[in-house]
Amino acid sequence: MRVRDFMTANPATISPESDLKTALEQMAVVGRRLPVVQDGRLVGIITDRDLRLAMNSPYVLREGWQDTYLLENTLVENCMTRNPVTIKPDAPLQEAADLMLNGRFSGLPVVDDQQQVIGIITITDMLKALVHLLTIG
Question: How many structural domains does the chain have?
Answer without folding.
Answer: 1
